[in-house]
Amino acid sequence: MPLRSERTLDDMGNEIDPLESVAVAVRQARDAGYTWQQIRAVLGEPPATPALPEAEELARTVIDDLAHARWADVSARFDATMRDGLTDEELAQGWEHIAGLAGGYQSHRDTDAVRVGDFTTTNTPLTFAAGEFVARISFRDDRTIAGLYILDPNAAGAQAR
């Protein structure tokens, strides 16, 4: 049903449609000089889109694949941009570089998953023989990987998610 925003709340009487009454109230507020910011403050923010429910498990799977040198399994999860930007060989070189700095991978701790815009971003602390890192993986809603970073924990904590 189209909203008939030319009406006023007083005109609506007993036939109030909740959505139409909001549209009318917003129009009247704008006509009275209220800003969109003021109106949004009253209406509230739209509900946040939740993180992918299985994001933590997806991140653990990717980390396990990295730890076991299953580069093709990791890259099979890449979105088109990641596939175009990172080969299996480059992925292997990156992981080997981290291992060269911090020794062999030993374990990971609990994964934190948050919604950031169109992506679910996970942060998983990693323990290597001689150092700590954070795996930050961003997933699209179709479960493909849109970003994959192995970060120094101080840098990971300082970056906005």
What distance lies between the first and last C-alpha atoms, to the nearest angstrom?
A: 40 Å
Compressed to H and E, one letter per element, the order equals: HHHHHHHEEEEEH
Question: Mean pLDDT across all residues, rounded?
Answer: 87
Q: What's the number of structural domains?
A: 2
Low-confidence stretches: 1-5
Structural shape? elongated
How many DSSP E strands? 5
Radius of gyration: 24 Å
CATH topology of the largest domain: Nuclear Transport Factor 2, Chain: A
Determine the number of helices (DSSP H or I, runs of at least 4 residues).
8
| Strand residue content | 15-25%
InterPro entries: DUF3887 (IPR024981)
Pfam families: DUF3887
Domain DUF3887: 59-148
Protein name: DUF3887 domain-containing protein
Summarize the entry for a quick read:
It comes from Mycolicibacterium sarraceniae. This protein has 161 residues and is an alpha+beta fold.
List strands and helices in order, with pairings.
Blueprint: H1 9-12, H2 18-31, H3 36-43, H4 55-67, H5 71-75, H6 80-85, H7 88-102, E1 105-108, E2 112-116, E3 119-128, E4 131-139, E5 145-151, H8 153-158
Antiparallel strand pairs: 1-3, 2-3, 3-4, 4-5
